[in-house]
Hints:
The chain is of the alpha/beta class. The chain has one domain: NADP-dependent oxidoreductase domain (TIM Barrel, Alpha-Beta Barrel). It is 38% helix and 15% strand.
Amino acid sequence: xxxxxxxxxxxxxxxxxxxxxxxxxxxxxxxxxxxxxxxxxxxxxxxxxxxxxxxxxxxxxxxxxxxxxxxxxxxxxxxxxxxxxxxxxxxxxxxxxxxxxxxxxxxxxxxxxxxxxxxxxxxxxxxxxxxxxxxxxxxxxxxxxxxxxxxxxxxxxxxxxxxxxxxxxxxxxxxxxxxxxxxxxxxxxxxxxxxxxxxxxxxxxxxxxxxxxxxxxxxxxxxxxxxxxxxxxxxxxxxxxxxxxxxxxxxxxxxxxxxxxxxxxxxxxxxxxxxxxxxxxx
Length: 282
């Protein structure tokens, strides 16, 4: 089974259109559930707010992200080393499993290159295992490889966003010995919600129609929407890590149950134009 990574964007604050906010009490319960199921990857960001300093994450492998601000880049870079070290200290960690550059455009300027050099120094000091990037589109890869060869690349992948899968990008990355982490397998929760909730958040008409079609397919084929999303990703070869999100402990347990199984399903017809599925354009 692919290694699961738990996204922590809503651990301390609401994330996405449909996300719930988790407090630290919920966080502890979730960590216990993850430990029992031998899941030890957490996907965080230096920008995510997990307030309780007493949380001990030593048992977990942490994937985190950095993103240069629009303003005050020099100040950000001046504090980056200290912030990374504080993050390790706060959660009693010896090192990060990986640190990802969140915005590929950052690599096109001197500030981004300076941030990359700071990460390389951390890796040399054995405080980072892997340096990588988080991308949205295939064209982002050219920008990345012009600058460096990452150890890990995080990509969006779900039944509506099949671009990386269809163009054999995953296979090519594996041939380069680059780890592949996928995210957004539920499209920030849109693929698993009912229509009433989707209308409340004014989801685009084309996207809503596609979700209706997907839901109907699931009903006709005896799958839950979450189940179909999971089986789609599990059937793709070359994926090393799969990031999941959820809104409560029961939802997490259900997702974990689905990941214990594997069924072949064909969802090619649900591929959708990227302008409808890019969260930056919502």
